[in-house]
Amino acid sequence: MKTLCFLLYVWLGWSFANGDITASPYGPVVSELLRAMHAGVVPCEDLLDAPELCFTVDSVGLGLLASIVGDVAKDFQSVGLRSDSWLSGNGVHSVRLVFDTSGPNALYVYLAEDSPSHVRGLIRLSPR
Questions:
Q1: Which of 2, 78, 97, 99 counts the most CB atoms within 10 A of its CB?
Q2: Full domain range(s) for residue 78
Q3: Closest by alpha carbon to 123, among 28, 6, 7, 12?
Q4: What is the pLDDT of residues 48-84, one digit of tens each?
Q5: Residue 56's domain is classified under what CATH number?
């Protein structure tokens, strides 16, 4: 049932995703990521043209959050979500999540560790 609801959301979501990352077909993935990480949504400092969502997580490190992102990606694998390998540079770690049928867009997750127990993150919907 979860898969059927999700596929319906993806099918209908294309017409409603106009600048809002949570209204895009990736909305359920974003919601599950935030829930699984116990993340608090915060305002983004530098808004770009791409839909994005900023968050912080306290009391856990970057390694655990990367593992959680991988687990969430696996949970959505049955509906065509796949993830690339993690990339890192200048203290920022990122991964691209993409649906096989997502058209020109992909979801990018960026994580940066301020201290061993505080991580800032950004989720952005961008062209592949």
A1: 97
A2: 2-127
A3: 28
A4: 667 899 999 998 999 999 999 999 999 999 999 999 9
A5: 3.30.530
